[in-house]
Amino acid sequence: MTNNALDANLAVIILAAGQGTRMKSALPKVLHRIGGRPLVGHVLDTARDLGPGHVVVVVRHERDLVADAVTGIADEVIVVDQDEIPGTGRAVEVSLAAIPDFAGDVLVLSGDVPLLDAGTLGALVGDHRASGAAVTLLSAVLPDATGYGRVIRDPDGSVARVVEQKDASAAEAAVTEINAGVYVFRSTVLRTELARVGTDNAQGEKYLTDVIGLARAGGLPVTASVVADATLTLGVNDRAQLAEAGRLLNARTVRRWQLAGATIQDPATTWIDVTATLAPDVTVLPNTHILRATTVAVGATIGPDTSLEDCEVGENATVRRADATLAVIGANATVGPFAYLRPGTVLAAGGKIGTFVETKNSTIGEGSKVPHLSYIGDTTIGRGVNLGAGAITANYDDVTKHRTEIGDEVHSGSHNVFVAPVRIGDGAKTGAGAVIRKDVPPGALALSVAPQRNIEGWVDNHRPGTAAAAAAARSRSAQEQGDGAQEEHG
């Protein structure tokens, strides 16, 4: 839920400069997707929900790819480049340089931690301000803290420092409270202490976490807020963690739509992107994917075994065992089973795209039906049309695509081929097996019939000794005996 109130005293810095070598991918880690958005997109959405005065994203690896993705999601974002000095501390330092006059609180997020929500972060900022701390960090308690920085507390419970895994002693590595990589700083403290941070550590990096120790050494208060649900702090460093983050996000998304009034029969096999929208009283059956900007209206039933990407589904429509992309399915329409709707398909209210039908760049009018075994491409179909089984609109002449236009109340026979460009007038009929190459006037019957020829004895002459020849001989013999008996009693 977006916070419409602007918090001019809050700036958000998102760290998105890393390569993510453990992903083993040419794609930058923060651009890998879960729930229909890149990882950094989820972080951006959450940051914007807080209504900050500034949002800064730090980039470096595949700089242009990441910057383009970021500005494509939020064009108001300030993109800054990290220089040759490595480390999160340096990334934040160059970000602060992009907002030199800002004197409020700075919230630092990681572009590879996609599950944090605005409620959790808003509460963290609120706790920071209420406590008067110089630094407040978000922490979590994990059964296995391997790989994370540890939060080291003083006997009174205040935060003394954060120690990275590679720099931790055995006693420090045994601590199970981990740093979630999310911080709120007073900007004045952050600017001053970052200037003092060096690179004397196992990684040779300028650590942001060193600000905590410096602040404490200067007598400034540092606090940590332990998140109740540790899964919110899950970072993504490899493909296994990417899949787990996707699963957790999907479970959250499915539950949100259930609580909003949708029936989702099997959450474990249903995947819904965060960008999709379901109305109340939608029913989603098992093994269904509702992806990207798909919208599903009241009373529609989707699934089982269905994938919808960037589709619009109308009220009380049914889509069963189908695959559709960039298609519009009207109210009370039916699709499937085993239908393939390619981009540009528009099925009007009460229409039908049936079994083993493929459509592309075509409009099928109100109440019209393409029931089975058909290909409809680059076609406009009017109202009340029924196409027989095996209909094909042949739209490609090996050079150019052409359109077929079929008027209202047209009924075609089975196994028709409409060779575009061609128009079938309102109320026309076509015979079974017709190949329609010319326009058909309204109300006409179009036939393409050739006389049938039966060549007697062809099998005996060309396939002697085969089972077919033997079967034909038996049939002729039985027929001759029957004709003889009829003559005897005639």
Give an account of the 3D structure.
This protein is an alpha/beta fold and 490 residues long. It folds into 2 domains: 227 residues, Spore Coat Polysaccharide Biosynthesis Protein SpsA, Chain A, CATH 3.90.550.10; 190 residues, Hexapeptide repeat proteins (UDP N-Acetylglucosamine Acyltransferase, domain 1, 3 Solenoid). 23% of the residues lie in helices and 29% in strands. Strands 12, 13, 15, 16, 18, 19, 21, 22, 24, 25, 27 and 29 form a 12-stranded parallel sheet that branches. It has a 9-stranded parallel sheet with strand order 14-17-20-23-26-28-30-32-35, with no helix packed on it. A 7-stranded mixed sheet has the order 5-4-1-6-10-7-11, sandwiched between helices. The longest helix has 22 residues. The protein is elongated, with a radius of gyration of 34 Å.
Structure keywords:
single chain; 490 residues; alpha/beta; Spore Coat Polysaccharide Biosynthesis Protein SpsA, Chain A; UDP N-Acetylglucosamine Acyltransferase, domain 1; twelve-stranded parallel β-sheet; 10 helices; 38 strands
